[in-house]
Design a protein that fits this description.
alpha/beta, 11 helices, two-stranded parallel ribbon, 378 residues, nine-stranded mixed sheet
Length: 378
Amino acid sequence: MESARKSLIGLSRDELAAEMLAIGEKPFRAKQLWHWIYNRGETDFAKMSNLARPLQQKLAEAFDVSRPIVVTEQTSADGTRKWLFGFSDRNQAETVYIPEEERGTVCISSQVGCTLTCQFCHTGTQLLVRNLSAAEIVGQFMAARDSYGEWPTPDDGRRLLSNIVMMGMGEPLFNYDNVAKALKIIMDGEGIAISKRRITLSTAGVVPQIRRCGEELAVNLAVSLHATSDEVRDKIMPINRKYPLKELMAALRDYPTNNARRITFEYVMLAGVNDSEADARELVRLVKGIPAKFNLIPFNKWPGAEFECTPMKQIERFSDLLFQAGYSAPIRQTRGADILAACGQLKSASERIRLARLKERLAAGELDDHSQARPAAE
């Protein structure tokens, strides 16, 4: 059941201060709570030792600082860990932690489902249910930290969970306000304190919000490109019909970058679709003038997929051509494939819940067989 208490997670500093005023407390209590919630990771008001017992009780009666519920937790043979998180309305989304030699990256979802329907992406086969709130976005990272016991916030050099990528379920820029609010909380130096240099937002190319993201957040940007022509991109990424390559590349040229902070172009390798030497040369032409690097992604086959992965020798040749043109173009090592945590494989049980609800409503006579099965996004 949904708690009657209001969650303090996901509130800005000003909103947290306003909540304290609303219960008759001084605004400085917000700073104390911020420390306990985001630096210490505390979930029990009774353990917030610099708060008087009556205040602890008052807070516990009115507010909540819990995380999303861990429905399932799976750890891959390579150390990748995936969580299926449940929210108060019974919807679910997935989050992945990818350990690497010098860093550990948490891949966070921004929506339940996805509206993009990219043809090669398993996540895209789940219809959009709704946007995630700022609390649900921040909560994913906090719950991942819970799983590894990484509280209080450690120094950068001692962190397991050191980086964040907004590359999970959904298109972050279609939920910009909530994503921006969550990332500002995560970047706050007195709390979770992850630098914008360690945060990457991945987009399929929502041109108007790319400019806004650059102005307001200036986090690292990754672009799901996956094709070198509008003809191919229209087919495999329908968003290209609204924001074609010319408009997308113009927006990227305006994004705040430098040689140390380049835009990453994600490029999934699809056999016979986008993997020719001519495609590699066109990529070089396309990104000319943009501080850029490439991330070549072997296609992760999933049940029902119509594509095949480009042979590795051909991917290596593609990579070499980009390197010869002066661009970094590593081939991404597939991680977590055995638990369907690899790129493009995230797909939660939320769609099954939605369909079950639809069947219940049909059985109850609330809908007819021709009613829309897809709920509106919030």
